Amino acid sequence: MPSVKLHVGICGGGMGGLAAAIAIARAGARVTLLEAARELGEIGAGIQVFPNVSRLLIRWGVDELIGDNLIVVDEANTWAADGSLLARFDPKQGAKQSGFPHWLLVRRDHLHAGLTESARRHGVNLVVGSRVNKLEHNKEGVKATTTQGVDHEFDLLIGSDGIKSFVRQQLFPNVVPKAASTVAAFRGILSYEEVFAKVPDARQFLRNTMDGLIGPNGYILLYPLSAGTELNVVTLFQMDRVVTTPEDVDINEFRDLYKDWNPTARKILELVNYTQKWPLLVLPPMKTWSNEHKNVVLLGDAAHAMQNHMAQGAATAMEDGAFLGTVIGDVVRGNINLTEAIGLYEKQRIPRVWVKQQASFVSGTINMATGEDAARRNRASAPEVKAWSRNVVHPSQELPPTYKSWQMYCTPASVPGILYYDAEGDADNAVCEYLQQKTAVDEVTLVSRGLWDKWWGVIDDNGVPCT
């Protein structure tokens, strides 16, 4: 059975676009990635990687490319604003449960560089300085034109061009991102050398650990980057109004938000000279991510931007890419056509992404709870902390079974469907289910008619794959 020749274009070279490029190239399609910037790169600070993505990095060899800059922490701790321990998770236990590293921490630019190199090694044609400003599509194919007037023709174009997506604007001009809450984010990176020199008591938090301090209306995340030499600092707070665009902020105004928090945390924040507050924009749910011909489709923030309280924005985009790679592999092998592949992608991914968006809202609400809501939250995890404290003194005692912690973004037992998800496995299962549903079953052998012949045609009489 001859393979189907496909040329797939990807508009946008962020995390999701590169993941899609790698996955689709591995599936046997020709891939061209068009990036508007003159150099492939990534802005921002740190990123958290859970098993739903660490499995992809390992399968694709990206973990080896990043090397020591991909950090595994020893503990994940949640502290109250006053510095008392509220919840704790052991990443080693998470890795044992999922089979993949549970908590990897990495700078965004290091992860992006690893994905870029992996894409090159998989044969992806990476074309920089190519901003798409014109899009034409019909049932025969897609033509993308850049600002330089260069035309690129594809069988399928994937719009992975971010929250301000040009491709989405062409397909769905009325779908625009919005600020769904008053929460704003502040980000920065410090060196551990400076932190320990100026804030010696910070060592109570910073021990190759992931630490979150949560308090009324906000929280702080602290974790290592760059082989343990840098400290990533992310803070979020409920502002008095909705923030819709990045805004300059007075440094004293920022620090005043956390004036009643733990003194050590405040000292760390004193070292970060924030200059901007960042809005947390989301996209409303969409019924479709593709055009009528199913040969232009959206991915990542272009389709489903979400708040960051579950640390799943980039992860979800990479899942999209891995899923697309798997179903497109079945197009290449002739099991399904392109329209069917995109249909399966939308059927599986749209509701899953909506669940993630909702989990993110809930996670943020719990972390920033106030009053009696915060007190109830803290009481819920008190037995876990007490048992852990006893175990430190008497290591031979076993801890009680893990419960569904309110700290959803880091405790896999609370949301295993998110943190243990396998995008490639889900895609393969979706194709199998689809083929079974559309194929009659032989009443005697109980084998779906035609599927055996389809498989048999892949191998010739000498056991050599057909081309």
From TrEMBL:
This is FAD-binding domain-containing protein. Keywords: FAD, Flavoprotein, Monooxygenase, Oxidoreductase. The keyword Nucleotide-binding does not apply. Belongs to the paxM FAD-dependent monooxygenase family. Gene3D superfamilies: FAD/NAD(P)-binding domain. Residues 6-354 form the FAD-binding domain. PANTHER family: MONOOXYGENASE (PTHR13789), PUTATIVE (AFU_ORTHOLOGUE AFUA_6G14510)-RELATED (PTHR13789:SF309). It holds the Pfam family FAD_binding_3. One of its GO terms (molecular function) is FAD binding.
